[in-house]
């Protein structure tokens, strides 16, 4: 058997062949595992929805709705999940101390906040990361039971009704903006659609450190 010559052309052919084989294997493995991954993601989402709707979401009334809104000139996408016992809205504010702060907020038919969970954050451990607990029922900054239509969901330092996380004003502002935008998206989704892009202005005066 003749030995393959070690030249540039053969090296390129071998590398290309290896890449194609590896790519094919990865695609095959991805196809095998995708249903399991998707099922787990759906399970986690349903558990989150039940959590923010007070532990009882009931049946899903319609397919999830993706709503894109323009906020401060930037396109943001919100996911709306209408359930039998309320509506959960996924909202992201990009102005957290560490970047994006994503929450899932549950509302009843009147717009009162039933619960929330923080889905994603990059906040400082021990400080801004407390957002997952600080605003829960019975905690210093509780928002549970409030209705953003008539409650001032800004930190008390800015004249609002909510106590900020100690030493984490930026995170608190970001969290409360995400909750307010979740409510705004829910409210606008109930209104007749005109096809126009919604323009929303959010105040961002964060000059504090975490």
Any descriptors?
210 residues; six-stranded mixed sheet; disordered C terminus; 3 helices; alpha+beta
Q: How does this structure look, described?
A:
- With 210 residues, the protein is of the alpha+beta class.
- 34% of the residues lie in helices and 22% in strands.
- It is built from 3 helices and 6 strands; from the N terminus they run H-E-E-E-E-E-H-H-E.
- Strands 5-4-3-2-1-6 form a 6-stranded mixed β-sheet.
- The protein is elongated, with a radius of gyration of 23 Å.
- The N and C termini lie far apart (69 Å).
- Residues 193-209 have low confidence and may be disordered.
Describe the structure concisely for a colleague.
With 210 residues, the chain is an alpha+beta fold.
Query: How much strand content do the residues show?
Result: 15-25%
Number of strands: 6
Q: How does the overall form come out from the CA principal axes?
A: elongated
User: What order do the strands of the largest sheet run in, or round the barrel if closed?
Assistant: 5-4-3-2-1-6
Compute the number of helices: 3
Structural class: alpha+beta
- Helix percent band: 25-40%
Largest sheet: 6 strands, mixed
Mean pLDDT value: 83
Q: Uncertain spans, ≥5 residues at pLDDT below 50?
A: 193-209
Separation of the first and last Cα atoms: 69 Å
- The ordered H/E elements are HEEEEEHHE
Radius of gyration: 23 Å
